Amino acid sequence: MDAVQNTVIFLPNAAFKVDFQEKFPGKTLSKAAIKKHSQNECCSSLVLLEFWKTMTALERLTADISSMSPHPAIKRTSTVNSNSKWESTFPADIQTEKNSATFVHRFISITSAFILDKRGILGEKHFKTRTIEKLQIPVFEKENSVSVRLIKKIDALKQAVVNKYLREFAVVLYQKPDEEDVKEVFSFRLMYGEEDQISISVDTGINSDVFSQNLASATFSDLGTTKQYFVDAIRKLHRCIKHLETLPADTDASFRISFTEHAPKDYMPEGFDESDKFYEIAPEMTRDQFGILCGNHHKLQLLAASQFWKPGDFGNTTFNSLNQSIVDAPTLKTKQTKGVEKKSERVGRRFPYGQSATMNKGNRKTPEPD
């Protein structure tokens, strides 16, 4: 039923009917207003008139607000029902080396999308929602061309994880036009087996001996424990991002990678360009750890550094208590923890790092079309 004239409305508590057009010539009510009115107990034409004034004013206001929006709202695709189980996203068994590698690689992909969505680097249309362990998590939308390119870049890192080439993957947020004016970093550091050692890159600033000891000390227990650490890490990351200030309008982002000593000198995954720089953060930038997740053959640590933490928010146990639930409290003894080596520069590679194109507007390269 559209907005009509000569509408007969029955009032619930009245013994009479009102011919609306006769009492209020020229005035009409929409279907929504009539439905709303039928749910109210009115017993006089005066009440009905006041109700009409209120409802039509609200309807005009709603129409005005809708017309002010330059872009219609985009409903995000949801896969809540079909992909709610862990096995729909991650391997059901992470004991084997292959499945362990798949697990950490998919965590990188999912969490990267989560960061780019929650920090507003890419718009709503680039993501869909997937439910994993009862958490609704944004992931890349495969129907979007930009998202597909980002998926391909991250997929190219799968072999780097399998071959133990990838040491660190970072989502680096910087202020345009200078890609080295780094304002925020989300870092994924990998460790391969007990025999591996962690090289602390002296040119990043995000790493520390404490963080490295945490990673070296973490051990794989079982799938149930890893699931819980996954949930903890995502929740803490989400709470962290909610306590970060809104990024400036001229902020952009890129993916950056560093390698282990196992990587061939000429190795570079598809979608990344050779670079003689990784990233560097200011010494005063706030840093924290949000999780360590273990497969049977891989360990991955999620770190963040930002200059946008709101005053007074950092230092809350919401962020800093994570270590207690994953590994024993770190010790700062002078004796070195197994698997950690002293800070060292990467040598022997012509270009020791890799970097992707920017997300929004390319400064070094031609912008990728949306």
From TrEMBL:
Listed Basic and acidic residues bias regions: 338-348
Major localization class: nucleus
InterPro entries in the record: HORMA_dom (IPR003511), HORMA_dom_sf (IPR036570), HORMA_MeioticProgression (IPR051294)
Limits of the HORMA domain: 98-304
Any single GO CC term annotated in Swiss-Prot or TrEMBL for this entry: nucleus
Segments for region (Disordered): 333-370
Cross-referenced Gene3D superfamilies: HORMA domain
SUPFAM superfamilies found in the cross-reference section: The spindle assembly checkpoint protein mad2
One GO biological process term: meiotic cell cycle
Pfam families reported in the protein's UniProt record: HORMA
Keywords: Chromosome, Meiosis, Nucleus
PROSITE patterns recorded: HORMA (PS50815)
Domain of life: Eukaryota
Subcellular location: Chromosome; Nucleus
Name of the protein in its database record: HORMA domain-containing protein
